[in-house]
Structures are given as C-alpha cells and as structure tokens.
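Help!! Second protein's tokens look totally different from the first
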Amino acid sequence: MRIKSILFLLILTGCMTSYGQFLQNGEIHGNFYVKSQVYNSDSAIGAKEVDEKARMNAFGNINYTNGDFSAGMRYEAYYNALLGYDENYKGSGITYKYASYKKDNLEITLGNFYEQFGMGFIFRTFEDQALGYDNAMEGVRVKFKPHKSITIKAIYGKQRSFFDLGEGIVRGIDGELFVNDVINSFKEKKTQITIGGGFVSKYQADEDPIYILPENIGAFAGRINVSRGKINFYSEYAYKINDPSKDNSYIF
C-alpha cells in the first residue's frame, strides 16, 4: 500500500512539473472592456425618461498560446444591456471558449470560432461589439493545406444566439486553389488567378404545427479572383435552395 502511495505521489509530481513547464513556456494575453451609461430625459433630443437609470456592457478575453497550441475564453456581462442593444443580451456567462492546435499544414479548432467562405455570401460568422452582434460557431473546424496552392476548410456545429445556440446544425466545406502554382503555363505569367467554391447545409427539425417545412437546407457558391498589377477582378455566384421561414412569410 505504501509503495502505491509513493508511486502515486511521484506520478502526481511529474504531472504537476510538466504542467508548470507547459504554462511557463507559454504566453497569456487578453483584454477587458466595460461601458456604462447613465440615462436622463432630454426633450431637446427626444430622450424619454427610463426606469433603469444606469446600464452596463462588459467583456473580457483571456488567451493562452504555447507553440502550436492555443486556447482561450471570453466572459460577457450585461446588467442590463445598454439601450439600443437587443434585450436578449441580459445576464452573464462564458460565451466563447476554444482550443486550437496547428501543425505544419493542418489546423484543428474545438469550441468556438469565426470563419468565412469567400465573401461570406453562404457562410460568415463574425463579432462586432459596437453593433451588439455575434454569431460565432460552436463545434469543430478543420483547415488543411495539402499543397501550398490549395486550402480546404470544413466546419460543423451550431451558431450562437445570444446566451444560447441556434436550433439548426450547420455543416460546410470550402476550397480554394491558386491556379498559377498548379498549371505550368501560368507560373511565369503576371496575371494571377485564384478559384474557389463552397457548400453549406443546415439541418433543423420541422416542428411547425401547420406547414411541412424542409429540414435540410443547402447553399453553394463559386468564385474567381483575377489580378494583374494594380488591377483586380473578383466575382462570386451563390445559390440557396428553398428555405421557407417566418422571416420570409414561409415562401417557397
């Protein structure tokens, strides 16, 4: 029994030493933001009397990096959200957390992330505190470069909806190819061509008591970018299949 205890202590000490070295070799950075407003009526600008005299928006980001590994989180608090922001921003919690590992031509992210396919016609997640907008994904993202001229992205998860997640499950894949690197006749040309395309689908169970709604909605897009010196031409075509919802009065 004593030997087992000594062995356990040795293992524990080794783990704590490794963990300490892991933290010591890494970097921790972040930022904090607090904005509070006090409200008073002002007939000159049409500002009416409000019951809640003071409101506050606050958030803090903490990120840790160590070589190819990175992780972080963001805490947000709305007590209550400033006037002009959506009232669904109410309360506090950890709204963003992730762990990512990047090695050579492969990057894997678990948790929350922001991503965009092309110009974002079929898929774009981003955050803007000034607008009170954040539709970050929560799930898995994989980026892979099998060749220096090829980039492939794949995403799977759900999008943020205030302090919760949306009902739909989003799945997508996107690829981009730098033509000059793969076609010999283009390698020495001054004109550079990049082509790409993506596909995104959403699954959401049909629970409407009246309408029979499609549960799988897809969208695809193709794009091309041609540049020569100071001249650049970009074009993208996107198409989405029928997506009847309350927003469009259930139009097919």
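Here's the second one for comparison:
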Amino acid sequence: MAETATTPRATMWAVGYDRYGPPAEVLRVSEVPKPEPAPNEVLVRVRAASVNPLDWHMIRGEPLLVRSSEGWRRPKRTIPGVDVAGVVEAVGRDVTRFRPGDEVWGHKGRAMAEYVCARETLFLTRPRRLSLEQAAAIPAAALTALQALRDAGAIRAACRVLINGSSGGVGTFAVQLARHFGADVTAVTSTPNVVLVQELGADRVIDYTAEDFTSTGERYDIVMDNVGNRSLFALRRLVAPGGVAVMVGAMPSKWLAPIPRIAGGVVLSRLGGRRLRWMLAHSDDEDMAVLADLVESGAITPVIDRCYPMERAGEALAYLETLRARGKVVLTV
C-alpha cells in the first residue's frame, strides 16, 4: 500500500546482521519495524551515520569477550551504528527542545537505519557551520579524544603531547583538541597524511615510515595511543616522569584484546613515575554539549575521508578495517 497522510509507513529500511562475521559478508539492508517515540522521545529521519571500530568489533563478535554482553552464538542487537544526524520527524508529547523539521545530531545506537528514536537529551541542534554528514562524524570519535586527553590525560596548557594514529577518526579530533587546550603537539602518522595533521594544528609530525618515534629519546607528558601497534615498554619509554600513556586503540584480536594490555599497563604503572591507562569512551550529555560549543567556535572540525550510501555499509566498514582512513567514514541515508 502506498504511503499517504493517513497511512504512514509502519516499517523502515535498516542495515542489520543476524550472525557474526566480516561486515561485507553478514550485513544486509532489510525492512524492519519503524520505531515510535515515547512521550519524552523524538523520532529522527536519519540522513547520515558514521562508522566506527566499535561497529566492526560488534559485527565480528571479536574479541570474543564482547559476546558476553552481545550474545554468545548470535547477536542480540542487530542494527549497528552509534553516530547519527538527521531531521526530526515527530516528537513525543513531553518533548520541549525540538519540533518536526529541526536538524539534529547525536550519539545513539541503531543508527544505521532510516529512523532512530531516543530521548530528546541525546540530540543537539545541528551546528550551523557543518553539514549533516559532518555532524554525524563527530560523536564517538570526538568523545573518545576529549575524554582521553582531558580526563585520562589531565591535559593542560604547555604540556607535551604525542598522538600515535593522528590521522584517523579519533586522531584528527585529538590533534585539534590538544591544540585547543594549549598543548605542544607531536603527531605520528604516515607519509601521505603529514600535511593533513600539520593543517589540523600539530606542532611537529613524525612519519613512522621513516623514523621510529619510540626511539627518538623524546619524552612527553601525555602519550595518546590510538593504534596499539607498539609494546607497553615502548610506550612507557615515551612518557616523562609524572606523565601518562593513554591507550585508546588495540590491534585486532580474536580472543581477549585489550585485556592483556590493560593488565600490563596496571603492572607497569606500579613501577612508579609513569602511568599507562586504558580508556573506553562513554556517552555523556554534558560532553556532547562541550563538543557542540567547540564545533561552533571552530576549535574542531570533522575530517571526512569517504561517504558511502547505506546499502554499502559493509564496504564502508571493510575500508575502515584497513586502518587507512583519513578521518571519518560516513554513511548517507
């Protein structure tokens, strides 16, 4: 039956998976029930959703540790995605912040779909200086960078910060945020991305294809590791007395990662003088508001590598898994 003013669609298209495996193999676009807003919720028609390493970990069910919450044999949550931007289509009777037609962005699960539904506090008004695609690129990566530097790293003006993996989704935000906080920023990346991170505000750039950044003899107050491709001992050598290495990324692992790195960091931190901390970002309404202010002021701007249509979500995630993306990868709906 055709959709009319009196017969709204009861279903929507969404990216989903019903078994664990490589995203390109298990993701499918199918028709699922369309959500309806509760009294304190808004219904958003999705225009863009970005992809994150979290998505491929959940879809693959790796490391196997994630299955303890996601389902051992089959996934419990079958629509991936946590970053979203779109247009408010309907609001619950208690909603006061938004009305239909408002353009919004937020940090919300089940984002790879035509519609998402959530409480109004999870959304913010689209920044005037950004497109919806750019807005969708912000939440998970920028939250991770903010919480890693500000909370885990206790960043302050004039401190020395090294960012390994500075040209990826988290790294591009971390370089801009560290610069905003007044730090002296050293960025580690590969040859094709040197100019990019310089333009983002890095004071100096180390091309890891030409130089081993762990053997320069330099020491830093904060070492932010977004890659996980160096040993804990190598990271500790980079940390100045009283400083901290904040581990955000870990190389792909089928079994327990990042548990060994977390445990090793605890042990090495007890040797005194230099700390190694693993951190996992969490959704926070106040931090989202902080990011909105930083975007409006021009302190941070998302870097988008590629945009894919929703039906090519598997291809988008496969590209992200190569670890070669410059900034964020975004799906358009």
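Reply: Different proteins will give different token patterns, so don't panic. The chain has a mean pLDDT of 92.
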